[in-house]
Amino acid sequence: MTKAEIQQVKLRFGIIGNNEGLMRAIDVAIQVAPTDLSVLITGESGVGKESFPQIIHQYSRRKHGQYIAVNCGAIPEGTIDSELFGHEKGAFTGAIGERKGYFGEANGGTIFLDEVGELPLPTQARLLRVLESGEFIKVGSSKVEKTDVRIVAATNVNLRQAIADGRFREDLYYRLNTVPIQIPPLRGRGEDALLLFRKFASDFAEKYHMPAIQLTDEAKQVLLAYSWPGNVRQLKNITEQISIIETNRDITAPILRNYLPEQENVQHLPALAGRREKSFESEREILYQVLFDMRQDVTELKKLVHTIMAERENAAVGNKPTYYTTAPSVVPQPLEANVPTIIRQPAKPSATVDDDIQDTEEYVEESLSLDDVEKEMIRKALEKHHGKRKSAAQDLNISERTLYRKIKEYGLD
């Protein structure tokens, strides 16, 4: 493609900038458009990946067909299959009618799968089948349906790392990545940042009926030196803020700095949609976490036991013992695992121990299953509260329903 043809595409789709990496991405998009090859667009969040699937669609033989953009990260996991492939009436609760799905609607056209890295693994398997054979099955149906769809995908996630972590299928990655297009981040595009600022300032001046803001030479240097972690989207938002708030239309370096967040020790990593906080994905992970916490408690308790035993030995030879009135408690959980458990048993009276030692208990470390320990705790709680299950459940910090089930399970009726 000539520079004039690329410039025409930029004007048509509102792409601003002359960076070599950006120009190369546009060129590849135009070259691959007439084919039916799958395209994977990668780049950080906010770089403007959404423009390239439209270029590919408009310069393809499918331009008169449907173009559907799907944000995979914004659709709940429980409904993503229905959204993409459709469902039959009564396939699940709430399916009061038949749904065609995006792959049925876009037959003969193009589907843009944004944030494709957020697709759950079962949906990835369905998507792989569409890419390989053009076939899919609606949710709740056994009938194989055909579709002729061009798939363009985009992601800000490192898919190779996702493959290593078991979150993305390797075979699907290679099917999507037939033609890769990499969009450069704004901090790597040099003077393009100034061109974008000028364009956004002009657009907001027209929108809000006010003179356009301008940067001083020092402010331009600040703009170019900033790392722009939010890329073009962040630059656009900051330009709008300044356009509305500042009465002086000449923006100096100090004024611009007031709108730029501090960037010390900030790494530029892809944004992960829908996974911003640590969460437990399954009951198994919860059980592992409980077991880990319990092991820590057991370790602390063992240290305390050893300390007490050592002091008793010292007391037996005439040293004054130190008495402990409290000790950490370990509340067993219903896990199917074996962990070392500290059992306290009364010791037989010993004639060699001094009379001033009041506590003559010794600690014996055994390996018992947690089921046995849980059964013993429930039995003691019931004895303590004279068989009153409600009080025992409160003491054990479990629900009455759970206590009833455990009583039946362990034969403690």
Q: Please state the overall shape, judged from the principal axes of the Cα atoms.
A: extended
State the end-to-end CA separation. 83 Å
Strand arrangement across the biggest beta sheet: 2-3-6-1-7
Low-confidence stretches: 264-282, 320-367
Structure classification = alpha/beta
Main pleated sheet: 5 strands, parallel
Give the topology string: H per helix, E per strand: HHEHEHHEHEEEHHEHEHHEHHEEHHH
From the alpha carbons, calculate the radius of gyration and give it in angstroms. 33 Å
Number of strands: 11
Average pLDDT for all residues: 82
Percent of residues in helices comes to: 40-55%
Q: How many helices does DSSP assign?
A: 16
> Roughly what fraction of the amino acids lie in strands?
5-15%
